[in-house]
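=== RUN LOG ===
request id: a7f3
mode: sequence -> structure
chains: 1
length: 351
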Amino acid sequence: MFKEKYKKMNDSIFPSQELIEKVTHLPYREKAGRAGREKRFRRPAFILCTIIIFALTAMPALAATFPSIYDLMYLVSPSTAQFFTPVQKSCLSNGIKMEVVSAYIHGDTAEIYITMEDLEGSRIDESIDLNDSYSLYVPFDSSANCQRLGYDDAAKKATFLITIKKWGDKKISGGKLTFFVNEFLSHKKEYKDVLISKELSGLNTSSEKQRVNINGGGGPYYENYISDMDKKINVLKPSEPREFPIEGLDFTGIGYIDGMLHIQTAAENNLKKGNHGYFILKDKQGSEVTCDYSVGFIENPDVPERIDYNEEVFNVPESQIENYSLYGYFVTSGMYTEGEWKVTFVLENEE
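=== RESULT ===
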């Protein structure tokens, strides 16, 4: 009788259609997205302070929360979904609950599903971004990434998959894991294929430059231009912001340095915004040219009014710039939420 009753409870719970549609489009990855960025973690050298953990072991709670996540697992990876086991541990902070729903530890890899749910308002939405604030304490050296899988609007709940890889191709053999988050961004706006300038040859370009310490970079040919030994490089000296269609980002420079086209944007107090994007050059036939590499640097890093600069560099001769128009893709955040969400649980290898 209990088995039949529990089956009826399970059968009545399904993920939202919006959640299913989003997951079935994986592994689509936004070109300027942040959700899949890998982070590296060294084993902790100290003991964490006491963490409030709620163990949701009652069968009704399991029926209410686990089946929808379990269905989501089958959509993402049917071949491994059956190996995930319930964890059901959560932490409440600032009216928002973070829950570790299930985990699958196999070989040198740990896959963990977590949810974040707003119990008091509408701070969580389909654009939620953990803003690289998440951290892991594990008893081994590792790398990890956190990927947003979907959002259930009715429950105001977002689902993430955390994948942890132990270094050295060594099996994860027990111990405890602590996952914690300090902040997140939400209510983002996305701007696709925005025309910035139809005629680049008509822009008032500048080649005034400065040497700065960079704090990061990327792009397909980054390593061809920037070596690990480079501490300072030449970038455009920021000018007064030009007219720009994206609120939250300033267009602070465009010009040539050493035969390469540099385009620069800036964002003030961006640690609580995460505003970002990239540019594309298009010729008259619609062919696209992306940057060879990009770099970032900071002005006034130790004050709230810090300014984060991003500079993209294109290998397009100045003699040909008249053949291109400038477009962009950008994301800006509308809400910043702080808290202290921490959950600890035991790593149990299934192999």
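=== NOTES ===
The chain has a mean pLDDT of 77.
The two ends are 34 Å apart (CA to CA).
=== END ===
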